[in-house]
Every structure is written in structure tokens, then in C-alpha cells.
Design goal:
- By secondary structure, the protein is mainly alpha-helical.
- The protein has one domain.
- It is built from three helices and two strands.
- The longest helix is centred in the first third of the chain and has 18 residues.
- It starts with 6 loop residues before the first helix and ends with a helix.
- The model has no long low-confidence stretch (mean pLDDT 81).
Length: 78
């Protein structure tokens, strides 16, 4: 198997991105804010385990960016 293959990590990043997006869509709900913060932190943690050149695509928000850019965006959104 290639050392550039990050199947589970990329799946986790997709799930965390979706959890973050859905929690943020709930607005001012304190539980949703907490969930979005946890999802963003988890995304950033997992993103450190993959090659920074990896890209992630998110249908709902329509982005296709390097994982490190998305992690930075989530950090800025907090």
C-alpha cells in the first residue's frame, strides 16, 4: 500500500467537515456551537496526520481545497 494513501483519515476529515457545517447551520444553539467547535478541533487534529497536499471536497459548502487550508478556515471561524 502506498504511504500516500490516507483512506480512513480522509473519511474522518469528510465526516468532521460535515459535522461542523451542519452544527454551524443550527445558529445560536449552544449545543450546536459546542459540537461545531469539537468537529473543527477534530478536523485540525486529523489534518496533521495527512500530507498537506491532500485535497478535500465538500459538496454542501462547495469547496475543494487543500486539507490544511480547510483546517485554517475552521480555526478562523471559531
Amino acid at each position: 500500500m502506498s504511504h500516500d494513501y490516507y483512506g480512513l483519515e480522509m473519511f474522518a476529515l469528510a465526516i468532521y467537515a460535515r459535522a461542523y457545517t451542519e452544527a454551524r447551520s443550527l445558529g445560536t444553539n449552544p449545543n450546536a456551537a459546542s459540537a461545531s467547535a469539537r468537529a473543527a478541533q477534530s478536523f485540525r487534529t486529523v489534518s496533521q496526520a495527512v500530507d498537506p497536499r491532500c485535497f478535500i471536497f465538500h459538496v454542501g459548502d462547495g469547496f475543494f481545497k487543500p486539507v490544511t487550508d480547510v483546517a485554517g478556515d475552521l480555526l478562523g471561524a471559531q
